[in-house]
Write a structure and sequence with these properties.
Helices cover 46% and strands 14% of the residues. With 490 residues, the protein is an alpha/beta fold. It has three domains: 273 residues, Rossmann fold, CATH 3.40.50; 147 residues, Four Helix Bundle (Hemerythrin (Met), subunit A) (Up-down Bundle), CATH 1.20.120; 53 residues.
Length: 490
């Protein structure tokens, strides 16, 4: 597979990627609703779409990556009635909603910075694009797909569905949605101002105590959750753009609503490709407050959580995410994170060794085929686990050659160095972490190796073997060479 193919959730097919404009990609990814600290569930999307963006850059594309910040309009429970998530948190913390948004936007961006996620080209705030949302709602009303009731505006799902497939993206049939909503009884009882229970809010009338509200043609109010992304993606990427990304949990109602709104306004689907990553589970269970298994990212990095046996670095977490295909489930466990940590260290060690390999006149290995396999994996719907498997093969060959058990020519060495520097570092975004703890570890290990060396010189072989064996039990490999001893994590 020589060209990039991506799975399109909308068509349910893997399709060859063709950009609207030559060598330019418009990418919109739904960002966080910033009402709390980032947790484990927040990390997969940024990493997945960062690798996609990096790969486009590697292929010579220019990328406009838009990732929004939802700082208004997202009601608790993803419904149209109730408290805004930010306003509820603001009341708990006794601060302004925009203070909540600022605090958790900064913490979210710091989290992904530590994980080496490139910042978006544009990071629009929903609260900063109220005018665009109002204008879009007016267009939808004019097209006959929305209606106003008592200062609120709702999207007419039934009217839209007469000529459009409302549930195509999520696979939900409208008749089933209507049956599940118990629509007729709600209308008869007069419990809802909507014409149909499946209609969703484009604009909500604000009660006097609602802090975040703006003037509109329909009175004081605030936007619905879905209209925000439709308006912001349209402003920065146009009526039609290349890729819209997000988590599978957004298929319905958020992305379904987005497609309906944009189609009602412009006459067509806003994105040519819809990409969705799967969720992260913990020990086979969905993260939930009731199960007390939610882990904040800062807790993961510090190790300060009852479910954690140790701290895990940002690069270990990034590598762990990429070891599974983005459309498959990813189950968090201490065992999986420890395996990722050891595997990542093997790659880092090999990357360092590859810089100093000595070339032979001939080669026992076909490094070009490894590089070809890696690109074929990335072109096959961004199959990072297959690419990583080939990186481990490159690491194995590097170790074999370094140990003098195989030969490689200058071209092969150059390819190995390219594989580690370009693919591991630049495309997958995995970089060595030189921090205080790593420096301390280096110092401690060198001290132990010096103690072992001294024991051997004093012919205290029992102590020398004891140091080596105990380090081996802890996951360290000690190699003795003519230039002294070296260590690595295995």
């Amino acid at each position: 597979m020589t060209t990039l193919h991506l799975y399109n959730t909308y068509s349910r097919k893997t399709e060859e990627f063709r950009s609207i404009h030559d060598k330019i990609v418009g990418l919109y990814v739904c960002g966080p609703t910033v009402y709390g600290p980032p947790h484990l569930g927040h990390v997969r999307g940024p990493v997945v779409f960062d690798v996609l963006r990096r790969y486009f850059l590697h292929l010579g594309y220019k990328v406009r990556h838009v990732r929004n910040i939802t700082d208004v309009g997202h009601i608790v429970g993803d419904a149209d009635d109730g408290e805004d998530k930010l306003q509820k948190q603001a009341a708990l913390e006794q601060i302004q909603p925009m203070e909540v948004a600022q605090i958790y936007t900064l913490s979210y961006n710091e989290m992904i910075r530590q994980m080496n996620v490139l910042p978006p080209s544009i990071e629009p705030l929903a609260s900063g694009h109220i005018i665009e949302q109002i204008e879009m709602i007016e267009s939808i009303i004019k097209a006959g797909f929305a209606y106003e009731v008592h200062g609120s505006v709702y999207f007419d799902v039934i009217g839209y569905s007469k000529n459009h497939e409302y549930g195509k993206l999520s696979g939900r049939v409208l008749d089933d949605l209507m049956a599940g909503a118990g629509n007729e009884s709600r209308e008869l009882e007069g419990q809802d101002e909507k014409r149909n229970a499946n209609d969703f809010a484009l604009w909500k009338k604000a009660t006097p105590e609602h802090i975040m509200q703006w003037s509109s043609p329909w009175g004081k109010g605030y936007p619905g959750w879905h209209i925000e992304c439709s308006a912001m993606s349209r402003k920065y990427l146009g009526d039609t753009f290349d890729i819209h990304g997000g988590g599978m949990d957004l298929l319905f109602p958020h992305h379904t609503g987005e497609i309906a709104q944009s189609t009602a306004c412009t006459g067509h689907n806003p994105a040519n490709y819809w990409m969705h990553h799967n969720m992260i589970t913990i020990n086979g269970q969905k993260m939930a407050k009731s199960l007390n298994n939610g882990i904040q990212v800062t807790e993961l990095f510090s190790g300060n959580h009852p479910l954690l046996e140790q701290a895990y670095s940002p690069m270990t977490l990034r590598f762990f995410i990429l070891m599974a295909h983005y459309r498959g489930t990813l189950d968090f466990s201490n065992e999986a994170l420890k395996a990722a940590e050891k595997g990542l260290q093997r790659l880092f060690n090999a990357a360092e060794l590859a810089k100093n390999l000595v070339a032979s006149d001939s080669s026992d290995f076909d490094i070009k085929s490894i590089e070809t396999s890696i690109y074929a994996s990335l072109n096959d719907d961004l199959n990072t686990p297959q690419a990583i498997a080939q990186l481990f093969e490159a690491a194995r060959i590097t170790n074999v050659v370094n140990d003098g058990k195989g030969k490689i020519n200058a071209e092969g060495i150059q390819l190995l160095q390219h594989i580690f520097s370009e693919i591991l570092t630049n495309i997958l975004g995995i970089i060595p972490e030189s921090n205080t703890s790593n420096n301390a570890l280096d110092g401690v290990m060198q001290m132990l190796l010096n103690m072992r060396k001294q024991a051997k010189e004093e012919k205290n072989y029992a102590l020398s073997d004891q140091i080596r064996n105990q380090l081996s039990e802890l996951g360290f490999e000690i190699k003795d060479g003519k230039d002294g001893s070296s260590w690595s994590l295995v």
